[in-house]
Amino acid sequence: MSSTVEPIARIAAQLARLPGIGQKSAQRLAYHIAGMPEQDVHDLAAAIWQGRKAVRFCSICGNYTQNEICSVCADDKRKNGQICVVRDPRDVAAMERMRDYQGRYHVLHGALSPMNGIGPEDIHIRELLARLASEQVNEVILATNPDIEGEATAAYIAKLIKAMGIRVTRIAHGVPVGSDLEYADEITLSKAMEGRREL
Question: All domains of the chain, ordered by start, with CATH?
Fold first, then answer.
């Protein structure tokens, strides 16, 4: 018989459904929430509920926004002919933290994965091709993850875009800054060698 109080167990079960939250972390958070003042719990629940209701997808790029169009797509200075293709909105946030990229984005909302039944029609490739046909684009930067699905997605999209006469580039992959070569795996080192540049 479990010693966990049923309402706390219910909270923990819901928290455990979140990515990166295991059973122990969920239980620890559930006990913390149970010990919070009621008003703080209400504020937390309201922020989650209202935040989820307010967020939508940008009608142009598919990024998260509160409005019809996200702030990147609304910024005329970002219309420099570059579109960076990413897997999901978290990747846009990661690229924006860099502060170097001044183009626009296209969010695929997934990656090709035949093993999981995800084909080209299940992610936003059709929308990307429509954008390329209607916007002034001279370079598409493929910034999908360096895993099997990301590489397959990048290769598939590159083939489609090259046929349109648009330059296609792929972000470099390799050894992270500050790490040691001895700890890098073979694939990472191979990608680092492929992406080497002249100094």
Answer: 6-54 (1.10.8.420), 77-194 (3.40.1360.10)
